[in-house]
TrEMBL record:
A biological process from GO: macroautophagy
Protein name (database record): EI24-domain-containing protein
Signal peptide (residue range): none
Topological type in the membrane: Multi-pass membrane protein
InterPro entries assigned to the protein according to its UniProt record, in alphabetical order: CysZ/EI24
Keywords for the protein's UniProt record, in alphabetical order: Membrane, Transmembrane, Transmembrane helix
Organism the protein comes from: Rhizopus microsporus var. microsporus
Residues spanning the membrane: 41-60, 72-90, 110-126, 132-150, 171-189, 195-212
Length: 269
């Protein structure tokens, strides 16, 4: 049963999402972090977001083959930024967590890409519900935003995707608060602008999340709500389609897998 204590957890999440003192300490004490953040700001703030603002300001109604300058430039640019950002974010996570070994590169994992896509689609579907859709989508968006921020911390501890989802569901009120500031900055923007602003602020939230302590600390005090139930169903559906396709192929056969954690295929002997 949801108790009043969740209000406290929610407020604590908001507080830790404003832990700018930790961000400032890391930046001031690490030249490597400074250089990485400068690269991130240049890529996402100056080039990506700056290009979008420039096109919207001076070429708002210009089109080629039925597509606006913004779409033709913004979407390819977002893909390029995605590749470079994955490396920059991993470096920031390593600097913050003082990690000398292992890898934080999570973007080549097919199951993770599928999960992120289904999270975005799930929020979009919720938004289409009359009257309450936008509110529900915003709530999910806040928690998904927090999930992104804590991703590198969970990877360091080698948590499976299912464990990450379950933990977020158990601490839903805290993550609702932690993701609120970032959600407010991006939820009401266009898709391209939202991705640019998110890419710009995300490094600072990686730093904040690494030091955060989701409330409640005691597992016995949690009230789990299956927020990602719909996402799990969508993941299962996509995975089943994937497996069905490869099982029908003469060149490949599927191996045992955890649906949410990995999808592996090997050539048939």
């Amino acid at each position: 049963m949801v108790s009043f204590a969740h209000v406290t957890y929610f407020v604590e999440g908001i507080k830790e999402a404003f832990n700018w003192s930790r961000v400032i300490r890391l930046i001031s004490s690490s030249k490597q972090t400074q250089y990485t953040l400068i690269k991130s700001f240049t890529l996402n703030g100056v080039i990506y977001l700056g290009t979008l603002v420039l096109l919207e300001t001076f070429y708002p109604n210009h089109h080629i083959f039925g597509y606006s300058y913004i779409d033709l430039t913004g979407y390819p640019l977002s893909l390029v930024c995605l590749v470079f950002n994955s490396r920059l974010y991993a470096k920031i996570a390593q600097f913050e967590q003082n990690t000398t070994g292992g890898s934080f590169d999570n973007n080549n994992n097919l199951s993770v890409i599928m999960l992120y896509g289904n999270m975005a689609l799930f929020a979009l579907l919720l938004k289409m519900i009359p009257v309450v859709g936008s509110v529900l989508a915003f709530i999910i968006y806040c928690i998904v935003m927090s999930y992104y921020c804590f991703e590198y911390k969970w990877m360091k501890h080698d948590w499976s995707i299912e464990k990450r989802l379950t933990f977020a569901e158990e601490h839903w009120s805290y993550y609702l608060g932690f993701g609120l500031p970032g959600a407010i900055l991006t939820f009401f923007l266009s898709t391209l602008k939202a991705s640019a602003v998110f890419a710009l602020i995300y490094p600072t939230y990686i730093i904040m999340a690494s030091a955060a302590r989701p409330q409640p600390v005691q597992k016995s005090a949690t009230d789990r709500i299956p927020i990602f139930f719909g996402v799990r169903i969508m993941n299962q559906w996509v995975t089943n389609l994937w497996l069905r396709y490869y099982r029908q192929s003469k060149s490949y056969v599927s191996l045992p897998l955890n649906t949410l954690d990995t999808i592996k295929f090997s050539k048939r002997e």
